[in-house]
Write a structure and sequence with these properties.
Shape: globular
CATH topology: Uracil-DNA Glycosylase, subunit E
Strand order of the largest sheet: 1-4-5
Strand content: 15-25%
Order of helices and strands: HHEHEHHHHEEEHE
Number of domains: 1
CATH class: Alpha Beta
Number of strands: 6
Number of helices: 8
Length: about 190
Amino acid sequence: MGFNSFRCLQNQSSTSSSILNFHSNYLEMLRVLDAHQREDVREVCRSFYKKYYSDNNKRHLLLGINPGRFGGGVTGIPFTDPIRLEKVCGINPAFAGQKKQELSSVFIYDMIDAFGGAEKFYKQFYFSAVSPLGFIKNGKNLNYYDDKDLLRDIQPFIIDCLYKQISFGIETDVCFWHWRRRKSKIP
């Protein structure tokens, strides 16, 4: 079974709308990052996933929390900011004015380099995020678990997306999770 990175995202527009309409007054304080709504992002994702996942290799899953405002929230590719997308992956995104560095992307691509480079790394690993949607509150990234109402309301969507991604041919013996603890605890 080949990788199709858009399976989870095919119905995301209607699903995300349903999930995020839970409290209209709450959404006034929250901005949702869903980069896949933009055609230029979908084109970049097609280039990336065709370049690194056009095979039938089994891969291990490496999960982040949710897309950040300078990385996956811009490029649509987990842990990948526009700078690493261009310099490391050789894909030139046309995101005018959005070429900022995301700290998690710097860390991850340093790790990928130490592993032997992007080609070798992506043959063995598939990156994703527990929540494919990112969130911004008060101009800063908001992790889905830092808000109990958001966590409760998005949990069924998260579980559905994880099962769909496992069906891509992901190895299920182990999953790697990259997160950084701040003030909150994961419930």
